[in-house]
Amino acid sequence: MNKILTYYLYPSALFADNRPHEVITVLGTCVAVCLYDPVLKIGGINHYMLPLWNGEGLPSPKYGNIAIEKLQEKMIGLGSQKKDLQAKIFGGLGKSTTANVLNIGQRNCKLAKVMLKQMQIPIVASHLGGGLARKLKFYTHTGEVHMKFVKSDDIV
To answer: Cβ of 103: how many Cβ atoms within 10 Å?
Structure first.
């Protein structure tokens, strides 16, 4: 049995690997898209903060439209075929005062749904919106996601 490695995914980043990993991340208004290839049994995840890159500065995975596209490219680079990919999406807290004014959580969720539909990648599970942050553990070799709610005081 292969050892399962652990990786902590920070905001504005993405991760994909063909070795088994438990990837941990914590989401507020941010959204994480987990892509899994059940044929190759590999997966990847991103954690983006804002929906769209406005064209200023460098295009980074801080923005959903960049993060989702780069994650798909990374999975294909690892040998996946687009037709085999499945998605799970999480996050989009809607209660944060500052973020709520701009509807960032809601806009992040909408972007993931629209882009994945355009990319013809089925969403097999999602847990979006609400008033609490989430902690995720994504297992890249099974596609499983373990989620629990966390209070904002617990996020450090």
So the answer is: 15
